[in-house]
Specification:
Number of strands: 0
Structural class: mainly alpha
Number of domains: 1
Order of helices and strands: HHHH
Helix content: 55-70%
Radius of gyration: 19 Å
Amino acid sequence: MDEKTINEIKEKIIIEIEKTENSIIEYKEITKPIAPENAIGRISRMDAINNKSVAEAALRKAEEKLSKLKYMLKQVGEDDFGICAKCKKQIPIGRILLMPQSRYCVNCAS
């Protein structure tokens, strides 16, 4: 990979890290415990609990994505960067820019 491409990938990863960190902050706010003394009604409370569990799952995924993005940022420029971890073929630059946290090509990711 040339220097321009490497810089473009680094920039994309940094932007994704910032977005993901902001999402994590939002999800943490949403997943705060629901106090039982809040008079919101039984159905509304059940809905709030359901929404909280969905937000908790999203939070876990965002934290996992952040971890992968930080790892990939460290790997940019290494000899094996952009090589599929499974089949060892070059990952297309379009996929790297679309999903910079992925270590796999499209065929191996599915």
